[in-house]
């Protein structure tokens, strides 16, 4: 069986928490796209784990996979493996031999390109993600199978590095790329990682045939998708459910469930129009109570009301089996809470998320207002019917407008701060 976790907004919806929660019932946890631009947080007791590349099943000691669609900075991956070892885990990880490798020049190019783009800059994480995917598409990429073959690796470096150096020079970038030192540095990574490198498409399809439960962990969110997101302020991969198949070599026919992770409000780290953004004390309240500071870059996240135009578009693209609503606790203590259900564009009412960023920037959110709720003792909530009436109304409205059942309500970062409404492994 294959269950997948997909962000329905702009990332940081709590995918790490939900993946860790579902990992208990899974055999294998897989990342299929993105790289260490992701920052997924898991809280177990007093311990906080922040994973950038490692699938969020690591703490449950599950079998872990980095699929071919992931772009991998080997240095960061080794650091994460070592950190886990120090914490008493010995991660059982498989790395796709077809995954592309982030090289030093990708990180430098990320900085150069962001500077050149001016108002079109997405505010990237500067981890070299975009340039690595660009090289993949233009077939200048270096994959793990290349790293395993020293002659091929050297040949590729000899060809690619002088080209990158010319690009640096053209943009007035001083950095000097030294082929020998990059070659030697990456050979040490190869020596460390080679035992983990394999054909993960074969591994995953065999595991599926044997009846294993496979959990696919998306990074970023649908609105950061290179095709369906707020282009050009997106990331560079397919973050939607379609990315699962291209990023793992598993057929769409094998995917059973797709859970959309939806934060009870909206956050955005990076640039671009954000119609429901709250640039006032309410936005500050949510940012500070929700600890909305980037897991990867530490940047403050822009916050706003829940935007169902955004979420509904993600429902359309992904056809979610169910939604998991996270961080509902953060809204406690607010007198009124609002949900945006449409945009007003010069008097025209829009229900679908527009592709044109200038148009989006002129959209005014249309809200439904709800009475807020006080802080509550979540431990007393055992099912949806024991929720205070105002939270119940808020949740039901999301379900009604998205036409998607809610399978989970998360009210804190820890595993036991979770209310299960539907069992995603059985029904829904
Ligand atoms: P991800 O990128 O989607 O995995 O999300 P991040 O880990 O970047 O950001 C989510 C943050 O919210 C993390 O600090 C989580 O520990 C925390 N979190 C997750 N679920 C909840 C919740 O229901 N309530 C609260 N208050 N925090 C949560
Ligand atoms: P998780 O998995 C939130 C944003 C960056 C930037 C844009 C492009 O933790 O939800 P990139 O470095 O990918 O080229 O940056 O995408 N971004 C994220 N925002 N959560 C993420 O990951 C993100 N990964 C990238 O801020 O605007
Ligand atoms: Mg994150």
TrEMBL record:
Protein name from the UniProt record: Adenylosuccinate synthetase
Record keyword Transferase present: no
Gene Ontology MF terms: adenylosuccinate synthase activity; GTP binding; magnesium ion binding
Localization per Swiss-Prot or TrEMBL: Cytoplasm
Family: Belongs to the adenylosuccinate synthetase family.
One example of a Gene Ontology biological process annotation: IMP metabolic process
Function: Plays an important role in the de novo pathway of purine nucleotide biosynthesis. Catalyzes the first committed step in the biosynthesis of AMP from IMP.
Binding-site residues, IMP: 12-15, 37-40, 125, 139, 220, 235, 299
Active site: 12 (proton acceptor), 40 (proton donor), 136
Biological or metabolic pathway of the protein: Purine metabolism; AMP biosynthesis via de novo pathway; AMP from IMP: step 1/2
Record: residues binding Mg(2+): 12, 39
Cofactors named for this entry: Mg(2+)
Residues annotated as binding substrate: 295-301
Keyword Nucleotide-binding: yes
SUPFAM superfamilies xref list: P-loop containing nucleoside triphosphate hydrolases (SSF52540)
Enzyme Commission code: 6.3.4.4
Keywords on record: Cytoplasm, GTP-binding, Ligase, Magnesium, Metal-binding, Nucleotide-binding, Purine biosynthesis
């Amino acid at each position: 069986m294959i269950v997948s976790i997909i962000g329905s907004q702009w990332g940081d919806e709590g995918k790490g928490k939900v993946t860790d929660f579902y990992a208990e019932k899974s055999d294998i946890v897989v990342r299929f796209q993105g790289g260490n631009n992701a920052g997924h947080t898991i809280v177990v007791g007093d311990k906080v784990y922040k994973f950038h590349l490692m699938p969020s099943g690591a703490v449950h000691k599950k079998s872990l996979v980095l699929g071919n669609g992931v772009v991998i900075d080997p240095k960061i991956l080794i650091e994460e493996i070592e950190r886990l070892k120090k914490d008493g885990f010995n991660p059982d990880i498989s790395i796709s031999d077809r995954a592309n490798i982030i090289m030093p020049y990708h990180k430098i190019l990320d900085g150069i390109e962001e500077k050149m783009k001016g108002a079109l800059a997405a505010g990237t994480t500067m981890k070299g993600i975009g340039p690595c995917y660009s090289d993949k598409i233009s077939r200048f990429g270096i994959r793990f199978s290349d790293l395993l073959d020293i002659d091929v690796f050297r040949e590729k470096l000899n060809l690619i590095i002088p080209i990158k150096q010319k690009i640096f020079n053209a943009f007035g970038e001083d950095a000097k790329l030294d082929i020998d030192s990059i070659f030697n540095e990456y050979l040490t990574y190869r020596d460390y990682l080679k035992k983990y490198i394999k054909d993960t498409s074969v591994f995953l399809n065999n595991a599926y045939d044997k009846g294993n439960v496979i959990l696919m962990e998306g990074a970023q969110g649908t609105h950061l998708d290179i095709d369906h997101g707020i282009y050009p302020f997106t990331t560079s991969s397919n973050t939607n459910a379609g990315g699962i198949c291209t990023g793992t070599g598993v057929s769409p026919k094998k995917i059973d469930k797709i859970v959309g992770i939806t934060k009870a409000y909206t956050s955005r780290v990076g640039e671009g129009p954000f119609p429901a953004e709250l640039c006032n004390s309410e936005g500050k309240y949510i940012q500070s109570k929700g600890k909305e500071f980037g897991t990867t870059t530490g940047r403050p996240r822009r916050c706003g009301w829940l935007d169902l135009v955004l979420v509904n578009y993600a429902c359309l693209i992904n056809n979610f089996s169910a939604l998991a609503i996270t961080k509902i606790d953060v809204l406690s203590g607010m007198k009124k809470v609002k949900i945006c259900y449409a945009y007003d564009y010069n008097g025209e009412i829009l229900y679908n998320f527009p592709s044109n960023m200038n148009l989006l920037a002129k959209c005014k959110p249309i809200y439904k207002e709800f009475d807020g709720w006080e802080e509550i003792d979540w431990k007393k909530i055992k099912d949806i019917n024991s929720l205070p009436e105002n939270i119940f109304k808020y949740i039901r409205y999301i379900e009604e407008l998205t036409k998607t059942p809610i399978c989970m309500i998360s009210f804190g970062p820890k595993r036991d701060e979770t209310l299960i409404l539907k069992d995603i492994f059985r029904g829904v």
